[in-house]
Every structure is written in C-alpha cells, then in structure tokens.
Write a structure and sequence with these properties.
mainly alpha, 125 residues, single chain
Length: 125
C-alpha cells in the first residue's frame, strides 16, 4: 500500500474537519433547540457558522503562506470575518438570543479538530 504525500493527507484532513464542523453545527443546533428552545438552537447555529467561517479563513491564510501556492488576498478574509461577527451580534441582540448558546457554537471548530485527531489516531495506517 502506498503512502499519500503530505499535501494529499492534509487536504483530506481539512475536508473532513469542514464536514465535521457542519455536522456538529447542525446536530448541536437541533439538540440545543430540543433542550432549551428554538432561539437557543438558532444562536448555536450562528456561533457554528462563525466558527466555520473562522476555520475557512485560517485555512486560506495558511495556504497563502505556502511558497508554491497561488496568492490570495487576506484583506477580504478579515473584512468578511468582521462583517460576520457584526451581523451575528446584531441578530443576537435584536432577536434576544441566548449568548451562551452562541458562544458554545464558537467551540465547534475546536471540537472538530479534536475529532479529526482521534480519527487519525484510530485509522492511521
């Protein structure tokens, strides 16, 4: 069996982490809505979306640092992230959503990375 090169390995890991973030966001939002109400579920979903956007931006920033990669503009990432946070803050304040649920949603990308590490430890060949 041939070993994949580092680029293929990291590309697959990043794709899995993105899928795990989305799955945890949806499952967490449904669970939070069932336990604490629809507004808490929506707040968790907003936090998860910001978490996914942050992960996506950091990934693109890391890709831009690689000398062989094509250069991308990071200024749009910063503006997009600031806009997303401002939009989420307005939605949470306007709709009076649960701030703790939104903050919990922000932790989804960290949980996804931990789950990816566990996956690699179990299925590493």
């Amino acid at each position: 069996m041939t070993q994949p090169n580092d680029s293929e390995f990291y590309d697959r890991a990043v794709r899995r982490i993105g899928r795990i973030i989305m799955a945890l966001g949806v499952i967490g939002a449904i669970s939070m809505a069932a336990l604490k109400g629809i507004s808490s579920g929506f707040a968790f979903l907003i936090g998860s979306a910001i978490s996914f956007t942050s992960f996506w931006g950091w990934r693109h920033l890391a890709d831009a640092l690689v000398p062989t990669s094509k250069k991308r503009r990071s200024a749009f990432f910063v503006l997009r992230l600031v806009g997303m946070i401002a939009l989420a803050w307005v939605i949470i304040k306007f709709l009076r959503l649960n701030l703790a649920a939104a903050a919990l949603g922000l932790l989804v990308s960290g949980a996804a990375v931990v789950l990816e590490i566990v996956y690699e430890l179990i299925y590493a060949s």
